[in-house]
Write a structure and sequence with these properties.
The chain has 283 residues and is α/β, with parallel strands linked by helices. The protein has one domain: 3-Layer(aba) Sandwich (Rossmann fold), CATH 3.40.50.1820. Helices cover 31% and strands 27% of the residues. The radius of gyration is 22 Å and the shape is globular. The chain starts with a helix and ends with a helix.
Length: 283
């Protein structure tokens, strides 16, 4: 009888341990950490697997909810370019970096090789990110460089879940819509004063008709009912323009880096610190 009782007790302990192991494994599987996630999307009648790099701190805190920064490369670029550019922040645990790859190395703005539905792709990515327990759904940001900048402008114009965007080296085009039902979001637009690829005064380039950088920022500010009195701060290297008192307490800023070309970081090494400083300052 005692042997049977001991057997029952031992069996209960073993089952409990196994259940605990399963629960632990299940919890760990919901923690977002560094890896590559493949997403399937139908493009031109074919099912395409699109990679997204996830970069986190090596000692990620399972009990913390991290901000997300989605970063989009320029035309002809690669998502791997962001790994080193933003490693200072991902390694220290400031945010989780999410780097999608554009189909045919570009983002579909209407004049690119890709016919992908990129807003749907980014929405799919965000849906997946929100299934992890260590993601802060109230702090999802997007950075874009050049062609990727054009795509973050498109995302901002239909926004439902982004808190802020930073279009780098590009501005709104005439055809970029800001939908009336888009949720207002903060904008930090950065342009090079000597950019010959997408000039700050706008015009027809790369198959698009670009607004000037001031017109672009004003369009965001007007749509979000900001105070039209612009605060201007000038330094030896930059001119920062700020619209405030906007709907939902968002902020619209545009920074012109004097003497910088299209690759702004090459001429302005504190660029990513300023972008993250802007994102992290938002309530």
């Amino acid at each position: 009888m005692k042997i049977k009782l001991l057997y029952v007790v031992l069996s209960f302990i073993i089952i409990s341990c196994k259940q605990s192991d399963v629960a632990s494994q299940s919890l760990e599987s919901k923690i977002l950490s560094s890896k590559t996630i493949l997403f399937e999307q139908q493009i031109d009648g074919n099912m395409i697997r699109r990679p997204v790099l996830i970069e986190t701190s090596s000692d990620i805190d399972n009990l913390k909810s991290y901000p997300i920064v989605i970063a989009l490369h320029g035309r002809g670029g690669s998502n791997t370019n962001w790994v080193q550019s933003l490693s200072e922040f991902t390694n220290s645990g400031e945010f989780i970096g999410v780097y999608p790859q554009g189909y045919l190395n570009s983002w579909n703005l209407g004049q690119e090789p890709s016919n992908a539905n990129d807003p749907a792709f980014i929405s799919m990515i965000i849906d997946t990110l929100l299934s992890y327990s260590n993601v802060d759904e109230s702090k999802i940001f997007a950075i874009g460089s050049s062609n990727g900048s054009g795509m973050v402008n498109v995302l901002g114009g239909v926004n439902k879940r982004l808190k802020a965007i930073a279009p780098i080296g590009s501005q709104l085009t005439e055809r970029t819509e800001i939908k009336t039902n888009a949720i207002p979001l903060s904008v930090f637009q950065v342009n090079g004063g000597q950019d010959l690829t997408i000039p700050i005064e706008g015009g027809i380039k790369l198959g698009h008709t670009f607004l000037s950088v001031s017109e672009s920022a004003k369009k965001w500010a007007t749509n979000f009912n900001c105070n039209q009195n612009i605060a201007v701060e000038e330094t030896e290297q930059t001119i920062l323009h700020t619209y405030s008192d906007c709907d939902n307490s968002v902020v619209v800023k545009y920074l012109v880096v004097k003497g910088a070309g299209h690759n702004i970081f090459r001429d302005y090494s504190s660029l990513w610190n300023e972008v993250w400083g802007f994102f992290s300052s938002l309530n």
